[in-house]
Design brief:
Strand content: 15-25%
Number of strands: 14
CATH topology of the largest domain: Spore Coat Polysaccharide Biosynthesis Protein SpsA, Chain A
CATH class of the largest domain: Alpha Beta
Shape: globular
């Protein structure tokens, strides 16, 4: 198949090859996924020869949406990154080798990996997958099976901490795994349920001290290449401290059900995945993820906290924020807000945190600890006691204002300069930049504490009395100002706004109602 196109590329007749490709591409969705993916390999090869890196990247992405296990596309992605980011290139070649079944090609891929290992700037670590276990035998089988199926041998270990599961067969399954696994598998069995923070800290202490750690709930199932893309985010640059994925069920990381099932109509108060049932919901999510778990332009959303159900943390971040060997603060035992706390500590240590739009992980969720609501509220108060503020007042963006900024950016088709006097910890800026990354956002924060965290998200910021603090930017240089006039004076707003600029005001901050 595609013999003529292959021959034209081989002969260097690229214009003719483009015409031939266009003819073949018209029927790409009627092809078998493997054949469609193969056509994209040829397309990417053609764009590589024509020195169009953007079109080459898009072809690789499209090909992986048809066949997420096409090793040639991972190899080409490695070549794409080789001179840009050797760490991301290494991860791509690692996946190419993992999926490759051709002995000759495997040798070539091994050569690329060996070459990159000699780069002084290579810093890719193996990953310890730390699974906190409590019951849910069926889902945990799928959780571990997905790791074994999609993660290259030699790149990981699994450390399971079982929190005194009561469901029949759970501990027997884990013991058998520990005995029979052909990769490093450690099992720690607690005599009682020690909760999330303590359980995870026990697991972290038993992980290889040289590895990054991926904290994973046992009711979470990796979609194909999900961990690969989390690692790509972690090694995007040296300042990244943690990454996490999009999911069907995860606080502030949840995909709208209408994106997954456009025609879905709920008949109960249950989340859609629980209404469908585990097996059907998992298959629905796999189908959605297959098309979306692919390389993307601008794939990272800067956040100041990530949800702990599936959290990859860089070793240097772990070493920077751990206190007395504890990654999670056990003050929050048995559960809740320990991931918010960790996010604050990671941000204050100077690390960025990415929500990866390329990575998808199914999460069944809903188990909870004890009386879920009372434990949740208790830990919320613990967070207030520790940090002096209620994080629920900072977690959500000012959606109405952010949507107006996004609409203006799309309408003007140019980069906007936005002054956000309601910056807080950067939630609104994160939302704006997740959709329009070219928008410049300056933040006005009420304290140095807020600014220290928001500075990981906004382009620049000031803090103090926002009506009197000296602003470092040129007067009348912002296209948009976000402000609440009950707090920010009209004079200060006018000082910032350019002629013809837009003030977005909200007299009642909806976040106060949380």
């Amino acid at each position: 198949m595609f013999e003529k196109l292959t021959q034209l590329i081989y002969e260097g007749k690229y214009n003719d090859a483009l015409f031939e490709f266009q003819e073949e591409y018209l029927g790409i969705d009627e092809l078998e996924p493997e054949d469609a993916s193969r056509l994209c390999v040829l397309e990417a090869s053609l764009w590589e020869e024509l020195c169009d890196s953007g079109a080459e990247f898009d072809a690789i992405s499209r090909g992986l949406s048809y066949n997420p296990g096409n090793y040639e596309l991972f190899y080409m992605l490695g070549l794409y990154y080789r001179e840009i980011n050797c760490n991301k290139a290494y991860l791509c070649f690692e996946m190419a080798q993992f999926y490759c079944t051709d002995p000759g090609d495997r040798e070539a891929i091994s050569g690329e990996l060996l070459n990159l290992k000699n780069y002084p700037s290579l810093r890719v670590r193996n990953v310890s997958i730390m699974i906190l276990s409590y019951n849910d035998l069926e889902i945990m089988r799928d959780c571990i099976d997905a790791i074994e199926k999609y993660q290259p041998a030699g790149s990981y270990e699994i450390v399971v901490v079982d929190n005194a599961s009561t469901e029949e067969g759970v501990r027997e399954f884990l013991r058998e795994k520990a005995q029979c696994a052909d990769y490093p598998f450690k099992l720690i069995e607690n005599d009682e349920n020690l909760g999330f923070s303590r359980g995870c800290n026990i697991g972290a202490a038993n992980c290889n001290p040289e590895n990054d750690i991926f904290f994973l709930n046992n009711d979470a199932v990796l979609m194909q290449n999900a961990l690969f893309f989390l690692r790509m985010g972690l090694y995007h640059k040296r300042s990244v401290g943690a990454t996490s994925a999009l999911s069907n069920s995860a606080s502030l990381q949840e995909i709208d059900v209408k994106e997954i099932l456009p025609d879905y109509e709920s008949s109960s108060e249950l989340p859609w995945h629980r209404e469908l049932g585990y097996n059907e919901a998992l298959e629905v999510f796999k189908k959605y993820a297959r098309k979306n778990c692919v390389p993307k332009h601008n794939p990272y959303i800067l956040r100041f906290r990530l949800t702990g159900f599936a959290l990859l943390v860089a070793r240097q971040a772990i070493d920077s924020v751990s206190e007395n060997g504890q990654v999670f603060d056990e003050f929050f035992s048995p559960a809740y807000f320990e991931d918010d706390d960790l996010g604050i500590r990671i941000a204050r240590a100077g690390f960025e945190q990415y929500l990866c739009k390329e990575s998808y992980i199914y999460h069944n969720g809903g188990g909870g600890f004890g009386d879920g609501n009372s434990v949740l509220e208790e830990s919320r108060h613990k967070f207030k006691d520790k940090w002096g503020f209620d994080i629920w007042g900072f977690s959500l963006p000012w959606f109405e204002a952010a949507d107006q900024v996004i609409a203006l950016a799309k309408e003007k088709k140019e980069s906007l300069r936005v002054m956000d006097f309601s910056c807080g910890l950067g939630a609104t800026a994160s939302y704006i930049k997740s959709i329009c990354p070219e928008v410049y956002v300056a933040g006005g924060c009420g304290s140095a504490f807020e600014a220290g965290i928001a500075s990981q998200i906004v382009d620049d910021c000031v803090w103090g009395d926002l009506n009197t603090v000296r602003l470092p930017w040129k007067a009348h240089s912002f296209d948009v100002v976000l402000a609440e006039t009950r707090f920010i004076s009209r004079g200060r707003i006018g000082e910032c706004l350019a002629e013809g600029g837009t003030l977005i005001d909200n007299e009642v901050d909806e976040r106060d109602n949380l």
